Amino acid sequence: MVNGIDILLPGKSNGFQCAKIADEQEKRKLFDWIFNLEFNYFKIPRPDLNIFLDVPFSFTEKRLAENRTGKDRDYLNGKTDIHEADLNFQKKVRETYIRATETDDRLVRIDCSDNGSMLPAEKISEKIIAELRKHNFVK
């Protein structure tokens, strides 16, 4: 809890799971099923707001091409993450989240790009704070 606000930082897999399905109706059914499982069946508290930081795809490509190491990579046992290796799949995940922002009023998209380049962190922070203000989470 921060300043009386519950902060929930879920590791959302909806976009990754749904991006594996080509048929839009089937994709929507899976998205709804996961949503129902999490919030209705398991009673996970539904966040008041989810923020999707939509970064330029060139940034995604660059980051995924870098040699990434560290404890957070141990689960791979020296192998490549199959989701990270497939840039076409990454595009589908992004598209899935963008579509979800069109139907879920608790999921907002923040554009982190400026003419195809990544905005500075300060500008992205300003956009996040503006969105939090818009939803009355901060003054």
Tell me what you see in this structure.
The protein has 139 residues and is mainly α. It has a domain at 47-134. Helices cover 48% and strands 10% of the residues. The protein is built from six helices and four strands. The chain has helices at 14-18, 24-41, 57-65, 82-85, 87-103, 121-134; strands at residues 50-54, 107-111, 113-114, 117-118. Strands 1-2 form a two-stranded parallel sheet. The mean pLDDT is 87.
C-alpha end-to-end distance: 17 Å
Strand content: 5-15%
Count of runs of 4 or more consecutive helical residues? 6
pLDDT averaged residue by residue: 87
What is the percent of helical residues?
A: 40-55%
User: Cα-atom Rg, whole angstroms?
Assistant: 17 Å
Give a short synopsis of this structure.
With 139 residues, this protein is mainly alpha-helical.
List the helices and strands and how they pair.
Layout: H1 14-18, H2 24-41, E1 50-54, H3 57-65, H4 82-85, H5 87-103, E2 107-111, E3 113-114, E4 117-118, H6 121-134
Parallel strand pairs: 1-2
Antiparallel strand pairs: 3-4
What characteristics describe this protein?
139 residues; mainly alpha; 6 helices; 4 strands
